[in-house]
C-alpha cells in the first residue's frame, strides 16, 4: 500500500505528522512549566515545517530554502530581542523552530530511521526537562574534564602512535600498548559511572557486581574490610565476594574477545563455566539464608581515567611484555606457567593484555593456559585478603569458593588445555 502512495505525498505527510508531534510536545511543555503562550504552539510548528518542505521542493539546489531560513532566522531574532527586553533570555523556542524547519529536507534526503531519531530527540529534549536538570545537577564538575581526557587519549594519542614493535626484546607495538590502556580504562570507566550515578543506593551484592567489573581485587579488599563489622551477614558478604570474581571473568572475556577473537573462543568455555558456577553458588547462598541485601561499603572507587594511572598501566604492560619474552626464551612454556602463578599476586590485566597483544614464540594453548592460571592465582590472592582482612567467618563461603576456583584453574590449565 505504501508503494502505491506517491513519494512526494508520503514525504509531505511525514513532514506534517512529525512536526505536529513536536508541536504537541511543545504545547505540553509550556503548560507543565506554566510558561506564557506568546510564541505559538502546535499549528505554528506544522506551518513552519510545511514552509521548509515547499521551499526545498521549489528549488532542489537549496537556494529558496536558504533564503527562507534566513528570513525566518531574522524574524526569530526580532522575537528574541523583544523577549530579552522583558528579561526572557531562553533560546529554546528559536532553536526548536529552526530544527522543525529542517524536518522537510531531512524527510527527503535522510533514511527514515534518522528522521524518527531526529524527531524523537526533539521530543525527549522537551519532555525530559526535569530528568536532564537532575542529571546536570548530580554530575560532578570534573566529569566533563575526565571525558575530555578520554577523548584525547582515544581520539588524538591513539591514531598518532605507530603500529611498530617497541624493540626486539619487546614483542608489542606502541599502538597495541595504548589500545590495551584504553580498553581497560574504558571498561573500568563505565563501571565507575554506573556505581557513581546509577546505583548510589546499592546493596552489597550490586557493589560486588559493579566493583568486579571495575577491579575484583580492589572490591574484594573493600568488602573484606567492611566484613569485620558484618559477622552475622555471612551470606551477603560471601555472595558479594563471589560475584566480584564472576564479573572479573566476564570483564576479561569481553576484553579478550575485543583484542583477540581466536583466543576468546578458546577461553569462552572455561570462563563461562566459572561465571555460571559462581552465579549458582551465589543463588544457593542467598536462597538458603533468605538474604536479600546488606549495607554496601562506603568506600568510593578511585577514578579510572587519571592520566597517571594510564601511564602506570602502560609501563606495567611493557614490563610484563619484557618479562614474558625473557621467561619464554629461557624457560619455555613451563616458565610461562610459573610466571602466571606469580603474576596472579599482582595486577593481572597488564600481563594478560601483553599476552594478547604481543607476538611470543609459544602456541596459542600455552597463552590460554597462562591466562587461566593467572586469573586462578588472583583468586588465591583474594581468598587470602578476605581471610586476613575480615577476621571473622562471614567470608568463609567465599574463601572456600575462591580456593576451589584456584585449584580448578590449575587443573584445567595443566591437564585440559
Name the features:
single chain; mainly alpha; 2 domains; two-stranded antiparallel ribbon; 16 helices; 2 strands; elongated
Topology summary:
Layout: H1 7-32, H2 42-58, H3 63-84, H4 92-101, H5 103-109, H6 112-127, H7 129-138, H8 143-160, E1 165-167, E2 170-173, H9 174-198, H10 204-226, H11 234-259, H12 261-289, H13 307-343, H14 348-357, H15 364-390, H16 396-416
Antiparallel strand pairs: 1-2
Helix pairs in contact: 1-2, 1-5, 1-6, 2-3, 2-4, 8-9, 9-10, 9-13, 9-14, 10-11, 10-15, 11-12, 11-16, 12-15, 13-14, 13-15, 14-15, 15-16
What is the end-to-end distance? Answer: 59 Å
Helix run count: 16
Structural class: mainly alpha
Q: Would you report the number of β strands?
A: 2
If you had to describe this structure to a student in words, what would you say it looks like?
By secondary structure, the protein is mainly alpha-helical. The chain has two domains: 2-135, no CATH class; 140-416, no CATH class. 78% of the residues lie in helices and 2% in strands. It has 16 helices and two strands. It has helices spanning 7-32, 42-58, 63-84, 92-101, 103-109, 112-127, 129-138, 143-160, 174-198, 204-226, 234-259, 261-289, 307-343, 348-357, 364-390, 396-416, and strands spanning 165-167, 170-173. It has a two-stranded antiparallel ribbon with strand order 1-2. Helix 13 (307-343) crosses helix 14 (348-357) and helix 15 runs antiparallel to helix 16 (396-416). The longest helix has 37 residues, at 307-343. The chain is elongated. Mean pLDDT is 82; it is low at 292-300.
Amino acid at each position: 500500500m505504501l508503494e502505491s502512495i506517491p513519494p512526494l505525498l508520503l514525504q509531505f505527510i511525514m513532514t506534517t505528522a512529525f512536526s505536529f508531534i513536536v508541536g504537541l510536545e511543545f504545547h505540553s511543555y509550556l503548560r507543565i512549566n506554566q510558561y506564557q503562550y506568546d510564541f505559538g504552539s502546535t499549528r505554528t510548528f506544522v506551518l513552519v515545517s510545511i514552509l521548509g518542505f515547499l521551499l526545498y521542493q521549489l528549488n532542489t539546489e537549496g537556494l529558496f530554502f536558504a533564503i527562507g531560513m534566513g528570513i525566518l532566522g531574522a524574524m526569530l531574532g526580532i522575537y528574541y530581542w523583544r523577549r530579552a527586553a522583558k528579561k526572557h533570555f531562553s533560546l529554546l523556542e528559536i532553536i526548536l523552530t529552526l530544527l522543525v524547519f529542517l524536518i522537510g529536507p531531512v524527510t527527503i534526503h535522510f533514511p527514515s530511521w534518522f528522521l524518527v531519531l531526529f524527531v524523537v530527540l526533539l521530543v525527549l529534549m522537551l519532555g525530559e526537562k526535569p530528568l536532564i536538570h537532575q542529571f546536570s545537577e548530580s554530575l560532578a564538575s570534573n566529569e566533563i574534564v575526565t571525558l575530555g581526557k578520554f577523548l584525547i587519549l582515544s581520539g588524538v594519542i591513539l591514531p598518532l602512535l605507530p603500529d611498530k614493535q617497541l624493540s626486539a626484546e619487546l614483542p608489542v607495538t606502541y599502538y597495541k600498548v595504548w589500545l590495551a590502556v584504553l580498553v581497560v580504562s574504558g571498561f573500568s570507566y563505565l563501571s565507575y559511572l554506573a556505581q557513581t550515578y546509577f546505583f548510589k543506593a546499592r546493596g552489597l551484592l550490586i557493589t560486588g557486581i559493579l566493583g568486579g567489573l571495575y577491579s575484583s581485587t580492589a572490591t574484594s579488599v573493600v568488602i573484606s574490610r567492611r566484613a569485620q563489622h558484618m559477622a552475622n551477614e555471612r551470606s551477603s558478604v560471601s555472595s558479594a565476594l563471589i560475584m566480584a570474581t564472576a564479573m572479573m571473568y566476564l570483564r576479561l572475556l569481553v576484553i579478550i574477545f575485543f583484542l583477540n577473537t581466536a583466543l576468546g573462543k578458546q577461553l569462552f568455555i572455561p570462563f563461562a563455566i566459572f561465571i555460571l558456577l559462581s552465579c549458582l553458588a551465589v543463588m544457593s547462598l542467598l536462597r538458603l539464608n533468605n538474604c536479600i541485601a546488606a549495607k554496601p561499603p562506603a568506600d568510593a572507587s578511585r577514578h579510572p581515567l587519571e592520566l597517571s594511572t594510564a601511564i602506570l598501566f602502560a609501563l606495567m604492560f611493557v614490563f610484563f611484555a619484557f618479562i614474558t619474552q625473557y621467561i619464554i626464551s629461557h624457560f619455555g612454556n613451563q616458565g610461562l606457567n610459573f610466571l602466571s602463578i606469580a603474576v596472579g599476586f599482582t595486577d593481572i590485566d597488564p600481563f594478560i593484555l601483553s599476552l594478547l597483544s604481543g607476538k611470543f614464540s609459544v602456541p596459542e594453548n600455552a597463552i590460554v593456559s597462562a591466562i587461566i592460571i593467572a586469573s586462578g592465582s588472583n583468586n588465591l590472592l583474594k581468598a587470602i585478603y578476605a581471610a586476613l582482612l575480615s577476621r571473622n567467618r562471614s567470608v568463609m563461603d567465599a574463601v572456600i569458593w575462591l580456593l576451589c576456583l584456584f585449584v580448578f584453574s590449575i587443573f584445567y590449565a595443566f591437564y585440559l588445555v
